[in-house]
């Protein structure tokens, strides 16, 4: 090769390829990403950080917390389930209590058949009706229909080679308690089929999701972190090393999921968590004996500072004198408390039971 | 020398002599080499102090300037910009001058630009320690250091390319392909990354993607290219044979440029899934060019490796650097994906490329270049110190690489299993491996000191030869 410019042009072309693929394309895909509205509220996720927390982000960057902590929850799998919320009623619903007894014991006979179809591993018991009810023509008709359906089910079972257990729990038991988890951690097709069977029988059922993976099992988040969680962050400190636990949902983490588990003493959980995090900053080893996190004692004053809003002194332990958190300590804790990923997003849903409380950046009730 | 210059007969009649070429190189190359080695020592010490804090959190606590979160980026950036890039300029200038048979353009200007580079790196390291780090891996220098870095680089590279343009040996040897590609590649990735991260500020995770793209290009293309340039210059020279199979080297060169820039993002989690997938595939594909290049070198040296190892200090460094290049490419291809995400495994890759592949190749080259430019010999005055530098650097790189890799594997096991206690198994449990890393950084600092001492001896002997009579 004799010509430098050819070399330069070839290098430029190679670099342009990787630039187009790994800089330009992600920017085109993610550049216009906006916060998503939180269902049933006027708020969006991620919310803009209040001033103190925004200053805390700068402290987080400046002290290099991101060198040891990630803010990305990973998820291995997304599985589904079917949940029965209410039995509902239709023409084939009968009450097994005598009229005038003051009690109701509604049995949705169609639901029993639907449950049996959704759960081939459970037996189905015959419905016995108190004799006085047999005079009711509606009940007789419903029972007749049920018996016919049972025969059809038996036929289908035989065809599919399903042998139902004759003892143990039956679908009749399952239908008796609500909400009942009909299917747990199955594929989307099975779960959707079960939900359709149940809703067709008049019952109220819903599809539930299960976010699975070691991070989520550890209680580090309700779902995986996605690009949308970071649209307000600059610089975006995702972190690439976990010498400390992930912080993506620190603000909403359950107290028993910390390295040094504890229990909320009162109802003001936000204040307790803030207190806990301040102590962690002052000396992590006061909470978790083995922690290797460096203590940030320089964020605290030993003496009451000569400023108007010194804030409450921090009682770190019984033996040690109280200290006064500086502004940067409070800001950093405020930033940490805004870390949450419990909000359901279209691309990363969270289980419905863990729905986020509408409102501010305040941590959710555990 | 003739073996590494395949077509010396085409050289222009006005070509300067070797002595003239070396005289023009003396000031800037020696300055860059000395500063680079000094930064290697300083960076290794900073990294050593940081690594102690990983298992001894009370070490140096209570002062924000030396907390781990600042010391570690300061160390990595000192090693990347102070040592690796700076030394690579010394190598690039030397290779362009020698292979192009041309005197350096503006040696004084190059030295002044190099001085400014050092000032900028110093300011950047202190900026990180003061808490002004930008928060992006390998780009932590704050803007007030990043801009002077870019400016001094522009001067250095411009004069280097002017020198290349004036070369009397028109044929470009393989080493110069790598040098030219790396010299052009670096300003493009640096300006793109600084522009998008510190200037325009792309939104959200795109920042992390851009930073990862920059870091990978710096390691995989720029520094690896400089290491390969050194390998392709010194291996044929040492074994005194022409480069075997230049076609393979050419294919390897272009494939490395095409594929190398696509890796580095395999370990991002909160991004669209196609990005880590594409990067992971590139990490595997890049084995092909690396193998092609190394096979070409191996064919050149085949049969003479043992002899060269015994006789030549430079060759020892280069052989280990070549093996490490193969090793780091394979380990990233096999384990560099989701499983080792968020562990020290990726840290190990940065350190092996910076200090092992590039660092050892550069130290080896400097063991030849520095004596050429001072005493005029082919070897540094003290072979004992050269041995110390080699073995200390080798053990240092191995300890750092193996220590971080093993720690990464242990962490990966904990990350993958929620039943394991994170703090006990994943943090406290890797103290043993991290102690190995501390020893490794200590050995690297020692290697840098041994080289600097040898450097000092050579300069002293050179000065004594020049002005000894006057005293």
Question: Mind explaining what this structure looks like?
Answer:
The complex is a heterodimer of chains A (366) and B (471). Chain A has 366 residues and is an alpha+beta fold. Chain A has 2 domains: 41-75 and 223-354, Cytochrome c-like domain (Cytochrome Bc1 Complex, Chain D, domain 2, Orthogonal Bundle), CATH 1.10.760.10; 78-212, no CATH class. Chain A is 33% helix and 11% strand. Chain A has helices at residues 4-30, 51-62, 109-118, 137-160, 171-176, 188-200, 214-217, 269-282, 327-337, and strands at residues 36-37, 44-45, 77-86, 93-95, 106-108, 180-186, 204-212, 300-301, 324-325. Chain A has a 3-stranded antiparallel β-sheet with strand order 6-3-7. In chain A, helix 3 (109-118) runs parallel beside helix 4 and helix 3 (109-118) packs antiparallel against helix 6 (188-200). Chain A is extended, with a radius of gyration of 29 Å. Mean pLDDT of chain A is 86; it is low at 354-366. Chain B has 3 domains: 17-171, Four Helix Bundle (Hemerythrin (Met), subunit A) (Up-down Bundle), CATH 1.20.120; 178-302; 304-463, no CATH class. In chain B, 61% of the residues are buried. Chain B is built from 15 helices and no strands. In chain B, helix 2 (68-100) packs across helix 6 (206-239), helix 6 (206-239) runs parallel beside helix 9 (287-301) and helix 13 packs antiparallel against helix 15. By secondary structure, chain B is mainly alpha-helical. The chains are: A alpha+beta (366), B mainly alpha (471). Chains A and B meet through helix 1 and helix 7 of A and helix 1, helix 2, helix 4, helix 5 and helix 6 of B.
């Amino acid at each position: 090769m004799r010509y430098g410019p050819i070399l330069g042009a070839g290098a430029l072309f190679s670099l342009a390829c990787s630039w187009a693929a790994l800089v330009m394309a992600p920017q085109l895909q993610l550049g216009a990403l906006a916060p998503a509205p939180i269902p049933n509220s006027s708020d969006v996720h991620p919310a803009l950080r209040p001033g103190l927390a925004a200053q805390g982000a700068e402290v987080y960057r400046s002290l290099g917390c991101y060198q040891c902590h990630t803010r990305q929850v990973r998820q291995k799998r997304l599985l589904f389930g079917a949940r029965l919320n209410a039995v509902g009623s239709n023409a084939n619903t009968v009450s097994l209590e005598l009229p005038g007894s003051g009690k109701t014991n509604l049995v949705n006979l169609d639901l029993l058949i639907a449950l049996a179809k959704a759960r081939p591993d459970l037996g189905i018991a015959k419905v016995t009706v108190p004799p006085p009810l047999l005079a009711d023509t509606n009940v007789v008709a419903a029972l007749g229909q049920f018996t016919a359906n049972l025969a059809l089910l038996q036929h289908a079972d035989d065809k599919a080679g399903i042998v139902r257990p004759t003892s143990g729990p039956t679908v009749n038991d399952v239908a008796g308690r609500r909400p009942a988890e009909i299917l747990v951690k199955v594929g989307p097709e099975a779960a959707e089929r079960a939900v359709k069977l149940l809703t067709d029988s008049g019952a109220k059922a819903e599809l539930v999701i299960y976010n699975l993976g070691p991070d989520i099992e550890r209680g580090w988040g309700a779902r995986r972190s996605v690009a949308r969680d970071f649209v307000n962050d600059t610089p975006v400190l995702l972190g690439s090393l976990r010498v400390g636990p992930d912080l993506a949902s620190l603000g909403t983490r359950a107290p028993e999921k910390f390295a040094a588990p504890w229990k909320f003493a009162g109802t003001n959980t936000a204040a307790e968590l803030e207190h806990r995090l301040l102590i962690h900053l002052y000396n992590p080893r006061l909470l978790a004996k083995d922690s290797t996190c460096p203590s940030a004692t320089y964020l605290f004053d030993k003496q009451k500072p000569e400023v108007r809003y010194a804030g409450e002194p921090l009682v770190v332990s019984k033996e040690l004198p109280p200290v006064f958190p500086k502004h940067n300590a409070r800001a950093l804790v405020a930033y940490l408390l805004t870390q949450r990923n419990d909000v359901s997003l279209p691309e990363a849903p969270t289980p419905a039971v863990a729905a986020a409380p509408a409102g501010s950046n305040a941590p959710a009730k555990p | 020398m003739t073996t590494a210059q395949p077509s010396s007969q085409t050289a222009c009649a006005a070509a300067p002599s070797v002595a003239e070429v070396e005289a023009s190189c003396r000031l800037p190359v020696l300055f860059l080499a000395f500063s680079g080695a000094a930064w290697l020592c300083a960076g290794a010490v900073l990294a050593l102090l940081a690594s102690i804090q990983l298992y001894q959190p009370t070490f140096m606590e209570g002062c924000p300037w030396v907390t781990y979160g600042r010391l570690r980026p300061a160390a990595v950036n000192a090693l990347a910009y102070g040592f690796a890039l700076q030394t690579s300029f010394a190598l690039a200038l030397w290779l362009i001058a020698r292979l192009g048979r041309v005197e350096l353009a503006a040696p004084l200007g190059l030295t002044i630009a190099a001085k400014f580079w050092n000032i900028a790196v110093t300011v950047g390291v202190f900026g990180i320690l003061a808490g002004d780090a930008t928060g992006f891996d390998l780009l932590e220098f704050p803007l007030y250091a990043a801009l002077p870095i870019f400016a001094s680089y522009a001067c250095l590279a411009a004069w280097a390319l002017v020198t290349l343009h004036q070369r009397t040996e028109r044929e470009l040897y393989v080493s110069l392909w790598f040098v030219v590609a790396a010299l052009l590649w670096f300003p493009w990735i640096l300006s793109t990354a600084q522009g998008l991260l510190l200037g325009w500020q792309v939104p959200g995770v795109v920042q992390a993607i851009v930073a990862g793209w920059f870091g990978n290009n710096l390691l995989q293309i720029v520094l690896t290219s400089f290491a390969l340039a050194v390998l392709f210059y010194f291996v044929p020279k040492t074994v005194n044979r022409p480069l075997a199979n230049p076609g393979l080297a050419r294919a390897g060169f272009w494939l490395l440029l095409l594929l190398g820039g696509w890796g580095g993002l395999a370990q991002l989690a909160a991004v669209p899934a196609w990005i880590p997938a594409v990067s992971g595939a590139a990490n595997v594909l890049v084995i092909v060019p690396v193998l092609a290049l190394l096979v070409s070198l191996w064919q050149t040296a085949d049969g003479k490796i043992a002899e060269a190892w015994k006789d030549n200090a430079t060759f020892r460094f280069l052989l280990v650097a070549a093996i490490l290049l193969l090793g780091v490419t394979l380990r990233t291809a096999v384990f560099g994906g989701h499983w080792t995400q968020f562990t020290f495994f990726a840290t190990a890759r940065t350190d092996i490329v910076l200090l092992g592949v590039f660092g050892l190749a550069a130290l080896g080259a400097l063991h030849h270049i520095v004596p050429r430019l001072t005493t005029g010999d082919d070897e540094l005055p003290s072979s004992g110190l050269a041995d110390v530098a080699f073995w200390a650097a080798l053990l240092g790189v191995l300890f750092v690489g193996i220590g971080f890799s093993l720690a990464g594997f242990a962490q990966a096991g904990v990350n993958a299993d929620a039943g394991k206690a994170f703090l006990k198994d994943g943090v406290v449990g890797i103290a043993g491996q991290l102690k190995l890393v501390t020893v490794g950084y200590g050995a690297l600092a020692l290697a840098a000191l041994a080289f600097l001492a040898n450097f000092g001896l050579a300069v002293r002997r050179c000065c004594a030869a020049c002005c000894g009579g006057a005293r």
